[in-house]
Amino acid sequence: MVKLEENVSLKAYNTFGINAKAKYLCHVTTVDQLVDLLHSPIFKKERHYILGGGSNVLFTKDFDGLIIKDEIKGIETVSETDTHIVVRVSAGENWHQFVLHAVANDWGGIENLSLIPGTVGAAPMQNIGAYGVEIKNLIERVEAIELSTGRLKTFSNEECAFGYRESVFKRELAKKYFISSVTLRLSKKDHQFNTTYGALQETLKEMNVTHTTIQSISDAVIHIRKSKLPDPVVIGNAGSFFKNPTIDVKQFESLQNLHSTIPGYSIDNQNIKVPAGWLIEQCGWKGKRINNVGVHPQQALVLVNYGNGSGAEILNLSEKIQVSVMEEFQIKLTPEVNIL
Ligand code: EPU
User: Fold this and answer.
1) Which residues' Cβ are closer than 6 Å to ligand 1?
2) Model confidence, pTM
3) What is the pLDDT of residue 2?
């Protein structure tokens, strides 16, 4: 039986650095351990939350239940041809370490997703994306354990029903599965580089890159992220706090009449995605600090904990921002972070 810790501080287990406590915490390092836990009385009795790297969660109070910390490790090659490799990665592997492993082996596809905090298992959950690439484009399948039975189920890419920062695991099957591994198909040659994102193009130019490689894209992405996004080890944060909202073309055009510089990216003929960071900045929040928490000075979409902030303070700040953006733009901001 796996060991349970009681009354544990979660400060080291969430990148916001919130000092909430969990009634129970359990580190799971193998699928067998997880299945044992699922059949135990404590799992049946207590509410639970599965935690990966803790980089997309806000604890607003102590957690009165069982935190299952996913630490299942392993990387294996499933199949390989001249042009592609299919790799199965256990969910508890650190995402960025795996990206570095792929870059070092010259496996292409995930270099734009360098330096995203969190674990591999969390990647399909919210379809992580950055600089023009989403993980859904590389995923072959996801293996997950059904929490009510302990049975393993394999989800095809289609069955994961990916959307923008969304998947079946966040919607219809929320809280029903524990993702145990992710299988990705990466290129070994004739890599399809994605350098369409403005900031990425500019950075590659600044770095005098004339011959694009997986390594150079990864380096550029790391450079951009380090310059814009606060390092959670130094200042607590969970990346983008809100999703970028989608509005219809009519609303976008009427906002354009009032705010001529409003940026927007067409999604289809009817819908436009607007950067939440811009909306928040326009409302005057960028760089603002309220006691222990604030809005990051370089990227208004990121809320930060300057040290001893509580989850409730962050939540309070986020609600104030939502009210401002609603009043100014009639746009509802939805958190990207899981609020507990
Ligand atoms: N902007 C501002 N002020 C700000 C921030 C952004 O005006 O303070 C505007 C600018 O017009 C800028 C545009 O927003 O050109 C886009 O900004 P950025 O490139 O920083 O991207 P984002 O839309 O704010 C998204 C993801 C990030 C991802 C970047 C890069 C979401 C919710 N966030 O942010 O993902 O790294 O694109 O692709 O989609 C995360 O999910 O935690 C995350 C960091």
Assistant:
1) 130-131, 199, 228, 239-240, 243-244, 263, 275, 277-278, 281, 286, 299-301, 336
2) 0.94
3) 81
